[in-house]
Amino acid sequence: MPDFFTFVIESIDGVMKKLCALVCLSLIINYSGVAQEVSRRDSLVADFTYLVKLLEDSHPDPYTHFGGKVFFHEQAALLKDELGAKDYTVSEFADKVSEFLANLQDGHTYVSLPQSSVRDLKRYLPLQMRVIPDGLILSGLPDEYKELLGSRVERINDCSVDQLLKRTAAIEASENVFGSYAHLAASFSHPDINTKLFPEPQENVNLTVETADGEKRTFVLPFIGREEWLNREWAKLPEWEKIPAGNYLSYNFLDERKEVMFFKLTSVMARENFEYVLDRRWPGAYDQLKSFYDWTLKKEMPADTLAALAGVPSLSEEFYNLLSEMKRHKSKALIIDLRLNGGGWTPITLPVLYQLYGDAYLKTDMEAVTYKYVSDLYLKKQNISLERLNKMYRGSYALGDYIKVKNAVCDTCDIRSLRQRFIDQSMCSNRDVLTQQEGQPIYHPGKIYVLTDEWTFSAAFHFAFYLWKMGATVVGVPSMQAPNTYMEQTPFRLPATQLEGSISNSLQLFLPVNDRRANIFWPDIMLTYPDYQQYKFDKHAEILYLLDQMRSN
What we know:
The chain is of the alpha+beta class.
């Protein structure tokens, strides 16, 4: 059986498009024009044929969700015929491919438009929606409709929310219904998605909602121009000022007695993973660091690479500082906020788990199994040869084989040896701190809560799951990621259109297939609509709820 610690280091969850979808929408808003040149039909057919071959050679199972290999190829043949029968722009081609890939129900396999190819989006809907465990509520509206904030959405253009979720799943890959909720809520105001849900031309949208008072209301929102959309006066739901805004990685106490610590992480990326890819000369490593500066840190990256690395926070160092503060004040609870966290690198969270739990983490069997599919695309991503892969996994694997990895605890291993091995192979900036722990937690509070929402994805989902297995309480909205699903980002580029995307290279089974959480990871605590209403539908209602529960206990 392959080495679990090798798996920990090599099992990388690339930065996923799920949270990036929100970023992409803001990008779309800022585009001023569109490259709508029609592409040659034979070029598009060739690109799609190339993608189909990539899927068969690189994806762990491209057939099952199509209904089998025959039906996979039947759908591929139908799309090839369609591409060869009429003219399409690159944007339209990407849409067609995305609809094909949606059949996989795999959030890690997708194609996206390059920044140089943009869409002509002229009209927007002045509407924002938020996902709660039992549906959608209005979270942003023109000021004249502010009394409707918090209302539950029932119908849009005479379509029920359930009907819209099904339509959304057909154009955007969703692993469960909360993936469809996420895409619908995030993108409905943009005609790029809206026109796919409602093919007939529209000047406005009819919405039917149920207000917080139980009243049914129907109202009309017109599409408006880009400038008006950007400059419109919006009414929005409240946002508790105690929660820090801006920084992707931060922590602070939520009470004057410093009993409750709050830790915010909106991307599972830090100095550790960039050091790893740069040291191993992964393709695109420098570009990943540059993108992180641009999109997450939102500042210019130093020209010197060492200085650039030093400017990125270390997750293990920051979490050590957090636990040291909690220890100093004998804090009683820790809230870890993984909302709006689209993922990153699972391995950098493992030292954090050790800091929190010590040897108890090393002795815990997460009961998770992963099947890695060996392909040329995967080897290219890792920048290694097949021989090197076999040395890492102590096997004799060939292309097309599956590497089964289970993180079962070694019952016969000496704990000191196990601990040292973990520390030596950890993706961590302060291994000396882990060594000094000698198997003990740096500090473990009485209660640990983990906040999730529909966008908690990939490595962020892994972090939440592992914390849950260690006894933490999960609070919030279910994740769009299924525990039993495809995993990891393996990038590709289509030769003719130069469209880029990703194909999963693994299948993970985190729970028994008959477990009620196997497809939807239901949090331990989910607020009801009256709960949200009690806290005036505040963006941080879950935190306010937890604080009240702690006070009452």
